[in-house]
Amino acid sequence: MSKEIRKLIDSFREKYEYLNENNKQELKNDTYASFKGRKPYKETLLDFKNSIKKFHDLDDDKILKCIDFFGWEGFNEKEDAFEDLKERVEFYKKLPNPSIMYRAVGVRDKKMIDIENIGEHVTPYKWAIDKDMLLMIGSENWSDDVVPYIMELSIPLSEIDIIQTIIQNLSFPNEHEINLKNKGKGAKFVKAYRLKGF
After folding, report:
1. Domain boundaries in the chain?
2. Secondary structure E strands in the chain
3. Dihedral angle, C-alpha 92, 125, 135, 130, nearest 10 °
4. Per-residue DSSP letter, 185
5. Cβ atoms of residues 149 and 193 within 8 Å
6. DSSP secondary structure letters along 130-152
7. Helices 60-70 + 162-171 axis angle, to 10
8. Residue 101 and residue 187: Cα distance in Å, rounded?
9. At 53, is the secondary structure helix, strand, or coil?
10. Which residue, 183, 130, 197, 173, is CA-closest to 153?
11. pLDDT tens digits in sequence order for the chain, 198 residues long
12. What are the C-alpha distances in Å from 84 to residues 60, 131, 142, 162, 163?
């Protein structure tokens, strides 16, 4: 073995032994006592979720915790996720109770719309139901006789799944969706009409 290779191996060995000693020291200090009084992650997450009953429960600190717990995969920067979610929460806080929201469905005939089983995804913005949203709900697989309709719904604010809405908003901010509890069982059907231009 050449002297250069031997030097390289010895150098790696020294670094490894140094790192190994540091890890041993950290583990020695990392005892049960260092965790005493701390809740496990799942319990902490559950407590956090249970602390949010309505959008008014969300202040800047809780919005940041939402981002920490649920991620911000729909954004390039954490700061962008915070600003966007904060703006949405402020909008949600101003929603009247009940609120009119919209859902797109594809059916062959308007009479086929299932008003007893609304579904869990709605949007407070009628303008958000467009060609892109139809693609997200699978319109490219519809047969030629399927027509897109907009369902107009009256949603009590108590029927909004706040946590799932936040997760959805952080993951897919361009979808502008609100998630409902119990697949929309608490929503009231108002009317349905054909989506213009289709």
Report:
1. 3-34, 40-92, 98-194
2. 99-107, 121-122, 147-155, 178-179, 188-194
3. -160
4. T
5. yes
6. SHHHHHHTTGGGS-TT-EEEEEE
7. 70
8. 10
9. coil
10. 183
11. 667 766 666 665 665 565 556 555 655 665 555 556 677 878 888 889 999 999 999 999 999 999 999 999 999 999 999 999 999 999 999 999 999 999 999 889 888 998 999 999 999 999 988 888 887 778 777 888 888 899 999 999 999 999 999 999 999 998 899 999 999 999 999 999 988 877
12. 12, 23, 33, 16, 16
Tell me phi and psi for residue 108, to 5 degrees: -75, -30
Q: Any idea which residue has 């902490």 for tokens? A: 44
Please choose, from the candidates 187, 64, 194, the residue with its C-alpha nearest in 3D space to the C-alpha of residue 123: 187
Phi, then psi, of 149 in degrees rounded to 5: -120, 155
| Both structure tokens of 62 | 């809780």
d(CA 196, CA 103): 14
The whole-model pTM stands at: 0.76
